[in-house]
C-alpha cells in the first residue's frame, strides 16, 4: 500500500489539469475499494477503532491509513472529514487512531501523549 499508492499519488499531485483528473479518478477508485475492504474486515475478529484526521487536507490518505490499520488487525471506521480541533471526549468508549499527516507537529505529539496519560484510548497513525 504505502510503497505503491502513496508515491503514485504524490506524482499526480501537481497543477497540471490532466494529472489532477487522474488523481481524482484514482482517489475515487481507492476509497471505493478501501470501503469494501473495511466492510469485509469488520466481519473478522479484532479490536474496533475509529480513524480520525487531525488538521489534514488529504482525506484519501486518511482512508489509506485506515486500510493499513485494518491490515494490522483493527476493525476500522473512518471519520470522513478531518477535524481542526480533536476532542477525544466526544468519542467516549472508542479507540481513536489519529492521522496528523506525514509530519506530526510536536504540539500534536504532546497532546496525544497527554490524552493517553489521561486514559484516552488514542494512538497516532503513520510514520
Précis, in short:
The protein has 127 residues and is an alpha/beta fold.
Largest sheet: 4 strands, parallel
Q: Can you write the helix and strand succession as a string? A: HHEHEEHE
> What's the number of domains?
1
Mean pLDDT rating: 94
Cα radius of gyration in angstroms: 15 Å
| Strand order across the largest sheet | 2-1-3-4
Please report which band the strand proportion falls in: under 5%, 5-15%, 15-25%, 25-35%, 35-45% or over 45%. Answer: 5-15%
- Please give the number of β-strands: 4
Unreliable runs: none
Structural category = alpha/beta
- End-to-end separation: 14 Å
Tally of contiguous helical segments: 4
Query: Which range best describes the helical content: under 10%, 10-25%, 25-40%, 40-55%, 55-70% or over 70%?
Result: 40-55%
Sum up the overall morphology in one term. Answer: globular
Amino acid at each position: 500500500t504505502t510503497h505503491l499508492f502513496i508515491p503514485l499519488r504524490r506524482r499526480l499531485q501537481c497543477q497540471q489539469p490532466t494529472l489532477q483528473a487522474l488523481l481524482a479518478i484514482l482517489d475515487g477508485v481507492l476509497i471505493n475499494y478501501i470501503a469494501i475492504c473495511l466492510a469485509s474486515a469488520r466481519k473478522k475478529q479484532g479490536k474496533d477503532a475509529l480513524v480520525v484526521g487531525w488538521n489534514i487536507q488529504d482525506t484519501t490518505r486518511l482512508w489509506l491509513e485506515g486500510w493499513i490499520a485494518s491490515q494490522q488487525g483493527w476493525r476500522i471506521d473512518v471519520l470522513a472529514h478531518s477535524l481542526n480541533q480533536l476532542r477525544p471526549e466526544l468519542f467516549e468508549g472508542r479507540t481513536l487512531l489519529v492521522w496528523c499527516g506525514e509530519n506530526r507537529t510536536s504540539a500534536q505529539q504532546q497532546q496525544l501523549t497527554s490524552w493517553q496519560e489521561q486514559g484516552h484510548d488514542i494512538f497516532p497513525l503513520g510514520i
